[in-house]
Amino acid sequence: MTKDTLLNPPGLQPSAITESSKTTTTLPSHQARLDSRHNLITNTSGLAPGYLQANLLILPARYSQDFHQLCLRNPVACPLLGISRQPGNPYHMQPSGCITTPEDFDIRTDCPLYRVYQHGKPIATHQKNLLPFWPDPRHTPSPQHEDTERAEEYVSFLNGCSYSFESALTAATLTPRHQITGCLVPMYRTTIPLLPAGIFTGARTVVSMRPYPAHAVERVRAVTRPFLATHGEPVDWGWEALARLGIADLQAPDFGEPVPVEEGEVPVFWVRMFLVCVFVTLFPRGKGNVWGMWGLHGLGKFVCGSGWGFSC
């Protein structure tokens, strides 16, 4: 059971298991992970209101310190929520409490879908789980895994996702357009660089876009500003922002799907932790596999819970 006395980002829910009642209710965050485990969902936008969502990256332990430094140097673009307690262990994340139900958690199965990369190229897309690539560390590896890099050499990272504040926007009658249209949020590469760390150099920031009436932008900023663990308030807005960010065509996103912008509305941009853009470009060729990236945004989110919750 997690400790609800941890510092909780805005909107996180207390545990639904109480000592007084001795009854158990499945938390929305836990239910989202169960649905992911059983391949019942693909897009996590709007799921488990009040809980944070996260992107997952799994990479060889020998590069984990470089990526950790990348997160620390770029806290808005790469807000770090959790990391493997020990390399190769898919069952435990730290800090303690970042997963609401740690007794029922497996990073290899509790995301809707995964993409697996090798040498910077995808070798498996829309992967339902990582079990074929990551054998159970509690058991002796079977012969079929003899050619797979040892699981204990890998480290998992959970980084905050802007889907986390969408329930707050909806509660403020500012429902994101992509939720209304039923598509994936549009995302764009920008010309804004990330500060480098180790092998990770030359990365550019990715932003997501949600259109709003110009008069509502200040309300949107106020609602999302407290969510510092999941990118916080917008980094730019308005039609002039396209030139500042280096975006050529709003209706041609690099990732996700375009959404209509109505008359009187302006595009509003948030920094996005879209790891595929970063690591397909940056991960050194011949340096091993990168696991757990959600290539289609919304397909690989974690819903966590109290403490430093996020969506798994």
UniProtKB/TrEMBL annotation:
Residues 1-25 are annotated as: Disordered. Residues 15-25 have a biased composition (Polar residues). GO terms for biological process: glutamate metabolic process. Keywords: Lyase. InterPro entries: D-Glu_cyclase, Putative_hydro-lyase. GO terms for molecular function: D-glutamate cyclase activity. Belongs to the D-glutamate cyclase family. PANTHER family: D-GLUTAMATE CYCLASE, MITOCHONDRIAL. This is DUF1445-domain-containing protein.
